[in-house]
Design brief:
247 residues, alpha/beta, six-stranded antiparallel sheet, 11 strands, 7 helices, five-stranded parallel sheet
Length: 247
């Protein structure tokens, strides 16, 4: 049964009208990069809660979350309205197996996300384990508009710190942007355009993590399996590790 930590909002940054990052000060708690917790607010109609991946890395002084506002959602519109000093409950312990410990070794690691699915990868990129285990890391973020490309300053910092190890590839489907690709992810992979842009192979010696929109995950996973990659399971290690919930 989940326990709850009482948190205090320290920042609520709006990337645009429907995308924001919220920071919460809580008592220290342990988690593994890639895991999620539940956020909860008490309302006159009862407690509203939902799972969100931690964007911050373990050891950070604040918990941070990237949230997309769902117009008819029960929680996200309430979270978007929170201001510094407001209270927000955070569940314990953290959950989930979308973590590097569950990923076998490979020639390269592809971190493929859509929308807010980039969150757990940001948490992983802030750890030492990621950089020690994989010689080449490809971070792919597919979004509709340029404004959806959150945390580019963080990513640029890691690119400067690990210039020959990290490749960041934005994919923007509804706007033109220099350096970005602009087609659906499965098409980019099938034609090899994504691999050429990232200068990395995507084959049986690759490890691929998928997080984001369920349709993106399903379509990309099916394509990768048709290319000879296998789903990664504990009993049968493979190449494709999937986050099973959508936030």
């Amino acid at each position: 049964m989940a326990q709850w930590l009482s948190g205090t909002v320290t920042a609520n940054h709006h990337w645009h009208a429907n995308l924001f990052s919220i920071k919460v000060q809580t008592p220290p708690f342990n988690f593994i990069a890639g895991q999620f917790v539940r956020l909860a607010i008490d309302t006159p109609d009862g407690r509203v809660q939902r799972a969100y991946s931690l964007v911050n890395s373990p050891g950070s002084s604040e918990a941070e979350f990237l949230v997309s506002t769902v117009a008819d959602g029960l929680l996200s519109p309430l979270l978007q309205q929170l201001k510094m000093g407001d209270k927000l409950d955070v569940s314990q312990p953290a959950s989930g197996f979308f973590i590097l410990d569950e990923v076998p070794d490979g020639d390269n690691l592809w971190l493929i996300s859509s929308g807010t699915g980039i969150g757990p990868y940001l948490s992983m990129l802030g750890t030492h384990t990621l950089w020690q285990r994989f010689k080449h890391i490809v971070l792919v973020h597919t979004v509709r508009t340029i404004a959806d490309l959150a945390y580019r300053d963080y990513i640029q910092h890691w690119q400067h710190q690990y210039p020959n190890q990290l490749h960041y590839q934005p994919v923007v489907t509804r706007e033109a942007m220099s350096g970005a690709l602009n087609k659906r992810l499965p098409e980019l992979i099938q034609t090899g355009e994504l691999q050429r842009a990232c200068k990395q192979a995507l084959n049986e010696r690759s490890q691929v993590m998928l997080c984001g929109n369920p349709q993106m995950i399903t379509d990309t996973k099916d394509l990768l399996q048709s290319m000879g990659l296998k789903k990664n399971l504990r009993r049968t290690p493979g190449n494709i590790t999937v986050e099973q919930y959508w936030q």
